[in-house]
Write a structure and sequence with these properties.
The chain has 206 residues and is an alpha+beta fold. It contains six helices and ten strands; from the N terminus they run αββαβββαβαβββααβ. It has helices at 3-16, 62-73, 109-124, 138-147, 180-188, 194-200; strands at residues 18-23, 28-33, 74-78, 85-89, 100-104, 129-131, 152-156, 161-166, 172-176, 203-204.
């Protein structure tokens, strides 16, 4: 009820002693007597207004989610010689920003062409990758890959097949160049797991 309606109801009660009132929740008209209700108009000066919120919106942005992902994924492990600690991010393949790295074992024209061929097949499959054709040792390139959180490293060491290395276990399998993109995609999409690939393809230690 607005102020105007309230004042009209007050005037009716004062003159007639009773008034009819529409109760919307009951959907009917009731009779109100003067002794049942008091209507008055007052002015108050508020120095402080206190209220209790009914909705709480917590501050939980994307930054905190990414921080938690970093914190739970980071660890260190000893190098092959045991003389230093290497940083590793164990991002799951699904959330890793870079899914795999591609690099030739040595600076060789044939191996570099094979790396470019694999890169094209990865693009066609929609797989993000990083290619490294520098002359750095294979161990250092693996360490770079692990530090970026890349799940798989593809090393071109033959004209027909490549070595695929898994980041956390450091286990390696041999896969034909034509198959490597589909194999990586299977794991990323959750259609296969790394242990499945160990049974399916020839393996060797890093």
């Amino acid at each position: 009820m607005g102020e105007k309606e309230a004042m009209e109801l007050k005037a009716t009660l004062e003159t007639k002693g009773e008034a009819e009132f529409q109760v919307c929740t009951l959907d009917k008209v009731v009779t109100i007597k003067q002794n049942m209700v008091t209507i008055s108009k007052e002015k108050k000066k508020e120095h402080q207004r206190v209220f209790t919120p009914s909705v709480i919106e917590p501050s939980f942005g994307i930054g905190r989610i990414i921080y938690c992902l970093y914190e739970h994924s980071f660890y260190t492990r000893s190098s092959k010689d045991g003389d230093e600690q290497l940083n590793v991010f164990r991002f799951p393949p699904l959330v890793a920003p870079i899914k795999c790295t591609v690099f030739p074992l040595v600076q060789n024209q044939q191996f570099e062409e094979g790396a470019k061929q694999i890169a094209k097949s990865l693009i066609a499959a929609g797989i993000s990758y990083k290619i490294d054709i520098t002359g750095t040792s294979i161990g250092k390139r693996y360490a770079r890959t692990d530090e970026l959180g890349v799940p798989f490293a593809i090393t071109v060491d033959s004209a027909t097949s490549v070595t695929v290395r898994e980041r956390d276990s450091k286990q390696q399998i041999r896969v034909n160049i034509e198959e490597v993109a589909s194999v990586i995609k299977e794991v990323i999409d959750g259609l296969s797991t790394w242990p499945d690939l160990l049974w399916k393809y020839p393996t060797h230690s890093s």
